[in-house]
Design goal:
By secondary structure, the chain is mainly alpha-helical. Helix content is about 55%, strand content about 5%.
């Protein structure tokens, strides 16, 4: 009789499965790709900061600057992609990666896409920061974001193309040379202007807006071309490159066919916002409607002295072109950086003097007789003196006999106009503006 012994079977606890992170995620979180995005953000931040007086406060100016920054951002993105593309050769791991299970296209995209995505993120963050910097000083208009999708796609395409260049010519000098060549090539293309329609870094002017389909076509042109080259380089079936190539060529043909007509003047540029409580009325461009109170304050001394004067133009107008009949040209508020900076008039006295000069129309009169010139100087000195008049007078006082004689006559004319009683001065000014409307001097009363 045999007896059996019971054996207890114990099972080891199951070990939890460790999830291998996706190679795209690993590349996107660590390594060179975040540095590439930071480089784009830093470059744009420096450019925007150093030129902030020229765009802060104007939505059109802000949009134009962040787009024009592609002249530098695109070569930088291409150089970043190129550096990433040559990584395997620099690390001498090219043969090791060749034995991997993943297909060549998968390996390429796992390395190239993170740089392209981070470059796009850096650019979008710069656009957002520029909008935040403009918003507190905005003077009218609204954010212009139409070009952002096309610009972002162009940056991603540049990073992909740079990656292919880095894999093709994997040397240490390829990336910096590609960046320099890209900058020079884009600069030459922008200067010549013949390829503006398909040039993603073509110069953009504030106040001009593309048609609605231009950013989509530009994205298809740049991304389609880069994807076609990527598939031709690494795909097992290279015929698949024909689809993005066809999309790119179609989009490029649409852009070329559109030519300069794909850019149109923003309708708000032709609109005026007016204050009719003064004579003349004061009208500023609708893009800068928020500056109207400051302009009215700057011209308050002028309009106060002109109360009751006849034969004045109906209004000052800022049309960025010749004034219409019955108008005087208001000193332009753009480009920013001189008259206007961060939503403020920087030189109200100078602005008022320029407005008076346009009001009298003497700036457009050629071969003006001395009589009209003395009258103009007296009117300007009374309504809004030139902030630098004392400097000019001191210079004439040290000049030759003719300059000193003219200074004596000018000072006498200024003093005579300023010393008139109110009624007589209004009568004189009414006759003056009636005569000066056509650059005439015959009807200008003497001083």
């Amino acid at each position: 009789m045999t007896t059996g012994t019971a054996t207890t079977m114990t099972t080891a606890p199951a070990t939890p499965k460790t999830r291998t992170p996706h190679p795209l995620r690993a590349e996107a979180v660590r390594g060179f790709a975040p540095l590439a995005g930071a480089a784009v953000l830093l470059m744009l931040g420096v450019l925007l900061t150093t030129s902030s007086r020229t765009w802060q406060g104007g939505w059109a100016e802000t949009a134009a600057l962040v787009h024009n920054a592609l002249l530098i951002a695109l070569p930088l993105a291409a150089a970043a992609g190129c550096w990433q593309g040559g990584r395997e050769r620099r690390r001498r791991t090219e043969e090791l990666w060749g034995t991997a299970v993943r297909a060549p296209l998968q390996r390429l995209l796992a390395s190239a896409l993170p740089v392209a995505l981070w470059v796009a993120v850096g650019y979008l963050l710069a656009v957002a920061l520029a909008a935040l910097a403009t918003w507190p000083y905005s003077m009218g208009d609204h954010p212009h974001l139409t070009q952002v999708p096309g610009d972002t796609a162009a940056l991603m395409a540049a990073a992909l193309l740079g990656h292919l260049a880095g894999r093709t010519v994997p040397t240490l000098l390829t990336a910096p040379l590609l960046g320099v060549a890209g900058y020079a090539g884009l600069g030459i293309a922008a200067h010549q202007g013949g390829l503006d329609a398909i040039n993603p870094a073509a110069f953009a002017e504030a106040g001009m807006r593309p048609v609605w389909w231009q950013p989509l076509a530009m994205a298809a042109w740049t991304l389609g071309l880069s994807l076609a080259l990527t598939l031709a380089y690494a795909a097992r079936r290279r015929a698949t490159a024909l689809l993005p190539l066809a999309a790119a060529l179609t989009a490029g043909a649409l852009l070329v066919q559109g030519g300069s007509h794909i850019w149109r003047t923003d309708p708000i540029t032709h609109q005026q916002v007016c204050d009719t409580s003064t004579t003349p009325a004061i009208c500023v461009n609708a893009r800068y409607a928020g500056l109207l109170p400051q302009v009215r304050t700057a011209l308050s001394g002028v309009t106060g002295r002109l109360r009751g004067v006849q034969n004045l133009p109906a209004r000052w107008a800022d049309r960025h072109s010749d004034p219409r009949a019955g108008e005087a040209a208001l000193p332009t508020l753009a480009p920013f950086g001189w008259s206007v900076a961060r939503g403020r008039l920087t030189h109200p006295d100078q602005y008022a003097w320029e407005a008076v000069a346009a009001l009298s129309g003497h700036g457009d009169c050629e071969n003006e007789p001395a009589r009209g010139q003395l009258a103009d100087e007296a009117v300007q000195a009374y309504l809004a003196p030139n902030p630098f008049q004392s400097h000019f007078d001191a210079r004439d006082a040290k000049g030759d006999a003719a300059a000193r004689a003219h200074l004596r006559e000018s000072l006498a004319a200024r003093a005579k106009l300023a010393g008139m009683d109110e009624q007589r001065r209004r009568t004189w000014l009414s006759a003056y503006f009636a005569a000066r409307a056509g650059c005439g001097t015959e009807g200008v009363p003497s001083l």
